Amino acid sequence: MSQAYIMGAAMIPMGKHRDSSYSGLGVPAVLNALRSAGIKPKAIEAVVCGHAFGGMLTGQRIVKEIGIGSAPVTNVDNACSGGATALHIAWKDILSGKHDIVMVIGVDKLTQFGGGTLPLVVEDPEVRQGIVMPAVYAMRAQRYLYERDATVEDLARVSVKARSHGVRNPYAQFRSEVTIEQVLQSRPISDPLTLLQCCPTGDGAACVILASEAGRRKLGTPAVRIAASVLHSGQVTAGFRDMLRPEISSDSATDAYEAAGFGASDLDVIELHDAFSIAELVYYEALGLCPEGESANYLRSGKTTYGGDVVVNPSGGLLSKGHPVGASGVAQAVEIYWQLTGQAGDRQVPNARRGLSHVTGGGIAGLDHGACTVHLYEAA
Q: Which pTM does this prediction carry?
């Protein structure tokens, strides 16, 4: 059976790079990923670029700066799942035998909007009524506090953990620890969520180099096998929807575990979509890390940090590292690659062999989410 491997990876520090263009963000990540894989630009057979707000030909505008001109470039917009969707497309190209070496880029520049919530599509009926993503997750948080044995302090604990991990990550937008009290006393955003429970807007780029078995033999760099790659889009449901049971994430994870031949209990490291603190608690259950209703206890027990069962978001996650939308799915893959090849520095998870990345994208009326991508990885 064909296999696809990550053979090189890089990202830039996430943050507010107001003076950078999309090319200015992407080129350093691309060059460092090529250096990591030990290859020249001419070795790249295809490029897939994920973004949400880069406009036309984002990928071409980046790779032309390093001399890639004839290789096919595909641009992908799938909201927050854009970068992960680009990885999924590249994975399929490798497995089909179409290419041996493919570059995946994720990039976005959110400072172009000047702050505030991100623009949504006005034709959506819920958007016309004023819905924004912080409000969606605040509703989930309210429901969670009602249905679960949990408190606002449990929501804050997610942010505290994220910041404690982010301190060790030189690529994180926020690198200072916070307390539960500081989280809860930060500016209210949408009750019960406060400022420190919401991911920051910012800019960033990440890049990975994928190779087939033949490409892997040519490169000879440390390899991580993509054991499964699953992309789902949401199913339309009218009327009631259980906000604490995100079927798109649970179904994607179930399919990924089946394809890879290993499950949640076998994972050493996870990068999941913690755009808001409540999301991490909900996704513990959706990804099968703990039984339904037990996510608050699971967090309190310390099982999702160093010394526990699995380290969730060692990068600091979106809450600490930042969430430049289209870049995030690729940045997750970069972090997993570094972890499984022992290149994560001070945040290295000891003896990490298997990992998962998970990202959802887009809020659309009637859908759980517009897209969800789950990848499973194994050290080769």
A: 0.95
